[in-house]
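Q: My labmate handed me this sequence with no annotations at all. I'd like to see what the chain might look like in three dimensions before we decide whether it's worth expressing. Could you predict it?
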Amino acid sequence: MPRTSRLASRPRLARRLAFAALCGFALAWGAEPVAAQGKLEAQYEATLAGIPVGKGAWNIDIGDDVFAAAASGGTTGLLKSFAGGSGTGASQGRVVNGALVATGYQASTTTSKKTEEIRITLDKGNVKEFGIVPEPPVDPDRIVVTDAHRRGVWDPMTASLLRVPGTGDPVTPDACHNGAPVFDGRMRYDLKLDFKRMETVKAEKGYRGPVVVCALYFVPVAGYIPDRPVIKYLAAQRNIEIAFAPVAGTRILVPFWLKVPTPLGPAMLEATSFVTAPQPPRVAKTQ
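A: Here is what I predict for the chain of 287 residues:
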């Protein structure tokens, strides 16, 4: 590629990375039984090289026998003027013997060019049904996702609930000893974690305390086009970092901030409000 073409492609690559971080940069790791019930209401801001480019919200509700999680986000300011977009994602399921078992996942993204909706139905980690509307055209360069790729996977939203085993403080280096396969309706990939350090954060509203910072590695498996610049860039990155904070009353950690290096500077998604509280177990009614 000529040098001028490479330079011209850098802003497009940076914008795509920032939009991906804002509208559901899929996070996934192994899920284990939840010890208690809790709730989170969080607000996030996305920046590119320190410039605000988007906002989002994330609500998580873990009950005695069911759970639900929902996120939304949209571009703002400079990014919206030439690459506007928004997205939502949600999952729901049962709590079985303390474990989160997703039964459904839905996501929608809207850009200046189109709106796309994805739906996945799961049964014990296996994809039973899935669909994308409108149906994307067949691309011969895309690596085919097989039935085997859709077994033993997590949907992006449920998988973002990172559980730390044990009985002590969950915000420890052990939280980064994790990784899992993900299917988002189009792609099958792995995300892996490595411990980097401990930090203390302070949201404008809500949580103040420690977070565990992990290195995040993206490993594409199927459903992608190998020559796509964003895929190649993310797969080669060794400097993506993610910080996890706890949901009160549980052993669940969720992302507090995410940093993705880009050619134009760091893309960052960070919580401005992180309000979390435990929920008492439901008391069964008696006659």
